From TrEMBL:
Its EC number is 3.6.1.9. GO terms for molecular function: dTTP diphosphatase activity; UTP diphosphatase activity. This is dTTP/UTP pyrophosphatase. It holds the Pfam family Maf. It comes from Trinickia fusca. GO terms for cellular component: cytoplasm. It is found in: Cytoplasm. InterPro entries: ITPase-like_fam (IPR029001), Maf-like (IPR003697). Belongs to the Maf family. YhdE subfamily. The record marks R21, T90, Q174 as: Important for substrate specificity. The active site is at D89 (proton acceptor).
Length: 210
Protein backbone atom coordinates (compact mmCIF):
# COMPACT_ATOMS: atom_id res chain seq x y z
CA UNK A 1 0.00 0.00 0.00
CA UNK A 2 1.51 3.39 -0.95
CA UNK A 3 2.46 5.71 1.87
CA UNK A 4 0.77 9.12 1.74
CA UNK A 5 2.89 12.23 2.07
CA UNK A 6 2.61 14.40 5.17
CA UNK A 7 0.26 16.89 3.48
CA UNK A 8 -2.41 14.33 2.59
CA UNK A 9 -4.78 12.34 4.80
CA UNK A 10 -4.08 8.70 5.55
CA UNK A 11 -6.32 6.27 3.65
CA UNK A 12 -6.57 3.74 6.49
CA UNK A 13 -5.86 3.17 10.17
CA UNK A 14 -4.31 0.22 11.95
CA UNK A 15 -6.76 -1.38 14.40
CA UNK A 16 -4.96 -3.06 17.30
CA UNK A 17 -7.94 -5.19 18.33
CA UNK A 18 -9.33 -8.60 17.45
CA UNK A 19 -12.89 -7.56 18.35
CA UNK A 20 -15.36 -8.16 15.49
CA UNK A 21 -17.60 -5.53 17.07
CA UNK A 22 -14.93 -2.85 16.77
CA UNK A 23 -14.28 -3.83 13.19
CA UNK A 24 -18.01 -3.59 12.45
CA UNK A 25 -18.26 -0.16 14.09
CA UNK A 26 -15.28 1.19 12.17
CA UNK A 27 -16.99 -0.01 9.01
CA UNK A 28 -20.11 1.87 10.08
CA UNK A 29 -18.05 5.06 10.03
CA UNK A 30 -16.63 4.16 6.63
CA UNK A 31 -13.10 3.88 8.03
CA UNK A 32 -10.76 1.56 6.18
CA UNK A 33 -8.50 -0.41 8.50
CA UNK A 34 -5.88 -3.11 8.73
CA UNK A 35 -5.39 -5.28 11.80
CA UNK A 36 -2.24 -4.87 13.87
CA UNK A 37 -2.50 -7.72 16.34
CA UNK A 38 -0.12 -8.89 19.09
CA UNK A 39 2.67 -11.21 18.01
CA UNK A 40 2.80 -14.74 19.51
CA UNK A 41 5.67 -13.68 21.77
CA UNK A 42 3.70 -10.79 23.29
CA UNK A 43 1.91 -11.28 26.63
CA UNK A 44 -1.26 -9.37 25.80
CA UNK A 45 -3.08 -10.70 28.89
CA UNK A 46 -0.45 -9.20 31.20
CA UNK A 47 -1.40 -5.71 30.02
CA UNK A 48 -4.93 -6.26 31.37
CA UNK A 49 -3.86 -7.25 34.89
CA UNK A 50 -5.58 -5.15 37.56
CA UNK A 51 -3.72 -3.20 40.22
CA UNK A 52 -4.82 -3.04 43.85
CA UNK A 53 -7.08 -0.09 44.61
CA UNK A 54 -7.37 0.96 40.98
CA UNK A 55 -10.72 2.37 39.87
CA UNK A 56 -12.35 1.11 36.67
CA UNK A 57 -11.93 4.52 35.07
CA UNK A 58 -8.19 4.66 35.81
CA UNK A 59 -7.74 0.98 34.93
CA UNK A 60 -9.30 1.14 31.48
CA UNK A 61 -7.32 4.24 30.50
CA UNK A 62 -4.04 2.78 31.75
CA UNK A 63 -4.61 -0.49 29.88
CA UNK A 64 -5.59 1.35 26.70
CA UNK A 65 -2.41 3.46 26.74
CA UNK A 66 -0.29 0.37 27.45
CA UNK A 67 -1.86 -1.40 24.48
CA UNK A 68 -1.25 1.64 22.31
CA UNK A 69 2.42 1.68 23.27
CA UNK A 70 2.71 -2.04 22.54
CA UNK A 71 1.05 -1.54 19.15
CA UNK A 72 3.40 1.34 18.32
CA UNK A 73 6.40 -0.90 19.09
CA UNK A 74 4.87 -3.65 16.94
CA UNK A 75 4.49 -1.27 14.02
CA UNK A 76 8.05 0.03 14.30
CA UNK A 77 9.45 -3.49 14.49
CA UNK A 78 7.64 -4.69 11.38
CA UNK A 79 7.64 -3.76 7.71
CA UNK A 80 4.41 -1.79 7.73
CA UNK A 81 3.20 1.21 5.78
CA UNK A 82 2.91 4.48 7.68
CA UNK A 83 -0.54 5.11 9.20
CA UNK A 84 -2.11 5.96 12.57
CA UNK A 85 -3.01 3.24 15.09
CA UNK A 86 -6.34 2.94 16.93
CA UNK A 87 -6.62 1.10 20.25
CA UNK A 88 -9.61 0.66 22.57
CA UNK A 89 -10.32 -1.09 25.84
CA UNK A 90 -13.64 -1.65 27.62
CA UNK A 91 -14.47 -2.60 31.18
CA UNK A 92 -17.59 -2.92 33.32
CA UNK A 93 -17.87 -1.71 36.91
CA UNK A 94 -20.40 -2.21 39.69
CA UNK A 95 -20.03 -1.30 43.37
CA UNK A 96 -16.56 -0.02 42.56
CA UNK A 97 -15.45 -3.46 41.37
CA UNK A 98 -14.08 -4.19 37.90
CA UNK A 99 -15.84 -7.00 36.04
CA UNK A 100 -13.49 -8.32 33.41
CA UNK A 101 -13.93 -11.29 31.10
CA UNK A 102 -15.43 -14.37 32.76
CA UNK A 103 -13.27 -17.47 33.14
CA UNK A 104 -16.07 -19.87 32.24
CA UNK A 105 -19.87 -20.24 32.11
CA UNK A 106 -20.28 -20.40 35.91
CA UNK A 107 -18.21 -17.27 36.35
CA UNK A 108 -20.37 -15.57 33.70
CA UNK A 109 -23.54 -16.54 35.59
CA UNK A 110 -22.09 -15.04 38.80
CA UNK A 111 -21.33 -11.77 37.02
CA UNK A 112 -24.74 -11.57 35.37
CA UNK A 113 -26.50 -12.28 38.67
CA UNK A 114 -24.58 -9.39 40.19
CA UNK A 115 -25.76 -7.07 37.41
CA UNK A 116 -29.40 -8.21 37.35
CA UNK A 117 -31.89 -5.64 38.62
CA UNK A 118 -29.25 -2.93 39.01
CA UNK A 119 -27.32 -0.17 37.27
CA UNK A 120 -23.69 -0.60 36.31
CA UNK A 121 -21.13 1.48 34.43
CA UNK A 122 -19.33 0.72 31.16
CA UNK A 123 -16.08 2.52 30.41
CA UNK A 124 -14.38 2.45 27.03
CA UNK A 125 -11.04 4.19 26.60
CA UNK A 126 -9.65 5.13 23.19
CA UNK A 127 -6.11 5.90 22.16
CA UNK A 128 -4.67 6.88 18.79
CA UNK A 129 -1.00 6.90 17.88
CA UNK A 130 -0.57 9.27 14.96
CA UNK A 131 1.57 8.48 11.91
CA UNK A 132 4.54 10.28 13.50
CA UNK A 133 4.38 7.91 16.48
CA UNK A 134 2.91 10.41 18.93
CA UNK A 135 0.16 9.32 21.33
CA UNK A 136 -2.78 11.71 21.04
CA UNK A 137 -4.65 12.62 24.24
CA UNK A 138 -6.83 9.54 24.97
CA UNK A 139 -10.63 9.73 25.14
CA UNK A 140 -12.99 8.07 27.60
CA UNK A 141 -16.62 7.07 27.10
CA UNK A 142 -18.71 6.45 30.23
CA UNK A 143 -22.19 4.93 30.06
CA UNK A 144 -24.70 3.56 32.56
CA UNK A 145 -26.65 0.37 31.85
CA UNK A 146 -29.60 -0.91 33.85
CA UNK A 147 -30.29 -4.62 33.75
CA UNK A 148 -33.80 -5.75 34.60
CA UNK A 149 -34.28 -8.31 37.34
CA UNK A 150 -33.99 -11.77 35.81
CA UNK A 151 -34.30 -15.32 37.17
CA UNK A 152 -31.11 -17.31 37.50
CA UNK A 153 -32.21 -19.87 34.91
CA UNK A 154 -32.61 -17.11 32.29
CA UNK A 155 -29.12 -15.82 33.06
CA UNK A 156 -27.73 -19.36 32.86
CA UNK A 157 -29.42 -19.97 29.50
CA UNK A 158 -27.75 -16.85 28.18
CA UNK A 159 -24.37 -17.78 29.66
CA UNK A 160 -24.47 -21.22 28.04
CA UNK A 161 -24.78 -19.66 24.57
CA UNK A 162 -21.09 -18.80 24.87
CA UNK A 163 -21.75 -15.16 24.01
CA UNK A 164 -20.59 -13.82 27.41
CA UNK A 165 -17.16 -15.46 27.17
CA UNK A 166 -14.46 -13.04 26.13
CA UNK A 167 -16.58 -9.99 26.98
CA UNK A 168 -16.13 -7.60 29.87
CA UNK A 169 -18.99 -7.93 32.32
CA UNK A 170 -20.03 -11.23 30.69
CA UNK A 171 -22.37 -9.77 28.10
CA UNK A 172 -22.60 -8.21 24.67
CA UNK A 173 -25.29 -5.55 24.43
CA UNK A 174 -25.60 -6.06 20.67
CA UNK A 175 -26.44 -9.74 21.13
CA UNK A 176 -28.92 -11.80 23.13
CA UNK A 177 -28.13 -9.88 26.32
CA UNK A 178 -30.36 -7.12 24.94
CA UNK A 179 -33.29 -8.94 26.55
CA UNK A 180 -31.95 -7.91 29.97
CA UNK A 181 -31.16 -4.28 29.13
CA UNK A 182 -33.88 -2.07 30.55
CA UNK A 183 -32.22 1.32 30.07
CA UNK A 184 -28.97 2.87 28.92
CA UNK A 185 -27.57 6.34 29.42
CA UNK A 186 -24.56 7.27 27.32
CA UNK A 187 -23.10 5.78 24.16
CA UNK A 188 -24.52 2.55 22.74
CA UNK A 189 -21.47 2.13 20.50
CA UNK A 190 -19.27 2.84 23.53
CA UNK A 191 -20.95 -0.01 25.40
CA UNK A 192 -20.28 -2.22 22.37
CA UNK A 193 -16.61 -1.31 22.62
CA UNK A 194 -15.94 1.64 20.31
CA UNK A 195 -17.70 4.97 20.95
CA UNK A 196 -18.13 6.36 17.45
CA UNK A 197 -18.31 10.06 18.31
CA UNK A 198 -14.98 10.01 20.15
CA UNK A 199 -13.45 7.66 17.57
CA UNK A 200 -14.32 9.95 14.68
CA UNK A 201 -12.87 12.97 16.49
CA UNK A 202 -9.57 11.23 17.25
CA UNK A 203 -9.22 9.84 13.72
CA UNK A 204 -9.83 13.28 12.20
CA UNK A 205 -7.17 14.67 14.52
CA UNK A 206 -4.80 11.99 13.22
CA UNK A 207 -5.74 12.93 9.61
CA UNK A 208 -7.38 9.63 8.70
CA UNK A 209 -9.51 9.91 5.56
CA UNK A 210 -13.10 8.61 5.89
Amino acid sequence: MPQPNHSSPYPFVYLASQSPRRQELLGQLGVRFELLLPRPDEDAEALEAERDGESAQVYVQRVCVAKAEAARARLVAGSHATAPILVADTTVSIDGAILGKPDDVEHAVEMLARLAGRDHEVFTALAVVDADGALLPPALSRSTVRFAAAPLDALRRYATTGEPLGKAGAYGIQGRAAEFVEHIEGSYSGIMGLPLFETAALLRQARVDF
